C-alpha cells in the first residue's frame, strides 16, 4: 500500500495537470456523443414520418369476469374434499364452543346439578342460547335472494353486462375500403405523441365508450399487424398500414350514452366468438397476445 502512495506523491504537477486535461477532453467528447445521439433520434422520427407505411395504434380492451365460472364435476368434488379436510383438522369456533357449553348447562339442569349462582353476573340479562342464534340466522337466510348469474343482456353483444363469468373483448366496426370490418379500436398516429397515447386517443374518441375508464398494461406494444394496400391503390408515399396493439383492462364502464350512433357501434365478445366477426389474418395476429384470455 505504501508503494502506490509514494508513486502518487512523486508525480509532478505537470503530469497531474496533463491527466486532468485528458479527463476534460474525454468528458467533452461524451457530451458531443449525446448531442449526436439526439440528432440521430430526431432523424429517426423524420424517417418514420416520411415512411410509406401508415402507423396506427389499437387498444385491446378486456372486461374481466364479474362472477366466478361454473365448476365442473371434478372441481366440485375437489372443493367438497377440501371443505371436509378443513372441517376435520380445524379447531372449534367460538360458536361451536358456545353450543357445547349450552348443551352441558342443559344436561346439568336436567340432572339437578345446576347451580343458579353461577349466572349471578348475567341475572339482569336475557340469556340467548346458541341455538336461538342459529334459528335467527336461518330465518335471515330464507329471506336472502342471491343475484342471478345470467344478466338480462345475455343475448345483447353490445352490452358490457353480458357473459358475466367470461372475459370480454371490445370490437368496433370501421369502414375499410368499400366494406365495414370489425376490429379493435384504433386510430392513426400523429407526430409528437407516443404510440400508447395514440391507443388512449383511439379509445377516448369512441362516442359509445365515452364513459369507459381503462388501465393500460404497459407502454410497449404487445403485438403488431401489417397489411398492404391493393396494388391499384398503392403509391410511393402509401404502401400499407402497421397497427401496434396495446393491452388494457376495463376498470369502470360508466353510464351508457343517451344516444348511440350507428357509426360507433361496438361489440363485447368472448375469445371463442372472435372468429364470427374478424378476418382470419387479423384474428391470427390478435390471438397471439390473448394468452389466458
Topology:
Layout: H1 2-9, H2 13-49, E1 53-63, H3 73-89, H4 94-110, H5 130-142, E2 168-176, E3 179-183, E4 186-188, H6 195-204, E5 213-216, E6 223-228, E7 240-252, E8 266-269, H7 280-287
Parallel strand pairs: 1-7
Antiparallel strand pairs: 1-2, 1-4, 2-3, 2-8, 5-7, 6-7
Question: Can you tag this structure with a few keywords?
Answer:
293 residues; alpha+beta; 38% helix; rod-shaped
User: What amount of the residues lies in strands?
Assistant: 15-25%
- Pattern of helices and strands: HHEHHHEEEHEEEEH
Q: Find the structural class using helix and strand composition.
A: alpha+beta
Beginning-to-end CA distance, first to last residue: 64 Å
Radius of gyration over all CA atoms, rounded = 35 Å
Short summary:
By secondary structure, this protein is α+β, with helices and mostly antiparallel strands. The chain has helices at 2-9, 13-49, 73-89, 94-110, 130-142, 195-204, 280-287, and strands at residues 53-63, 168-176, 179-183, 186-188, 213-216, 223-228, 240-252, 266-269.
Task: Write structural notes for this entry.
The protein is of the alpha+beta class and 293 residues long. It contains seven helices and eight strands. It has helices at 2-9, 13-49, 73-89, 94-110, 130-142, 195-204, 280-287, and strands at residues 53-63, 168-176, 179-183, 186-188, 213-216, 223-228, 240-252, 266-269. Strands 1, 2, 3, 4, 5, 6, 7 and 8 form an eight-stranded mixed β-sheet that branches. A hairpin with a 2-residue loop joins strand 2 (168-176) and strand 3 (179-183). The two termini are 64 Å apart. Mean pLDDT is 77; it is low at 20-38 and 258-264.
Amino acid at each position: 500500500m505504501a508503494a502506490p502512495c509514494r508513486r502518487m506523491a512523486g508525480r509532478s504537477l505537470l503530469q497531474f495537470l496533463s491527466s486532468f486535461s485528458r479527463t476534460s477532453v474525454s468528458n467533452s467528447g461524451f457530451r458531443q456523443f449525446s448531442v449526436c445521439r439526439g440528432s440521430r433520434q430526431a432523424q429517426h422520427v423524420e424517417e418514420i414520418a416520411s415512411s410509406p407505411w401508415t402507423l396506427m395504434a389499437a387498444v385491446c380492451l378486456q372486461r374481466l369476469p364479474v362472477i366466478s365460472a361454473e365448476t365442473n364435476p371434478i372441481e366440485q368434488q375437489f372443493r367438497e374434499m377440501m371443505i371436509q379436510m378443513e372441517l376435520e383438522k380445524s379447531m372449534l369456533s367460538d360458536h361451536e364452543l358456545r353450543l357445547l357449553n349450552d348443551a352441558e348447562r342443559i344436561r346439568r339442569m336436567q340432572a339437578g346439578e345446576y347451580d343458579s349462582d353461577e349466572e349471578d353476573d348475567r341475572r339482569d340479562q336475557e340469556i340467548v342460547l346458541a341455538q336461538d342464534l342459529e334459528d335467527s340466522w336461518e330465518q335471515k337466510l330464507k329471506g336472502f335472494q342471491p343475484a342471478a348469474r345470467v344478466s338480462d343482456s345475455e343475448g345483447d353483444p353490445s352490452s358490457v353486462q353480458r357473459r358475466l363469468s367470461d372475459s370480454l373483448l371490445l370490437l368496433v366496426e370501421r369502414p375499410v375500403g368499400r366494406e365495414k370490418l370489425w376490429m379493435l379500436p384504433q386510430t392513426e398516429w400523429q407526430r409528437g405523441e407516443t404510440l400508447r397515447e395514440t391507443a388512449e386517443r383511439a379509445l377516448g374518441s369512441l362516442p359509445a365508450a365515452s364513459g369507459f375508464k381503462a388501465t393500460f398494461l404497459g407502454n410497449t406494444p404487445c403485438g403488431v399487424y401489417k397489411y398492404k394496400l391493393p396494388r391499384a391503390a398503392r403509391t410511393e408515399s402509401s404502401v400499407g398500414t402497421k397497427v401496434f396493439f396495446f393491452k388494457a383492462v376495463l376498470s369502470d364502464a360508466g353510464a351508457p350514452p343517451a344516444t348511440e350512433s350507428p357509426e360507433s357501434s361496438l361489440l363485447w365478445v368472448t375469445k371463442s366468438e372472435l372468429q364470427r366477426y374478424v378476418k382470419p389474418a387479423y384474428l391470427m395476429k390478435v390471438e397471439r397476445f390473448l394468452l389466458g384470455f
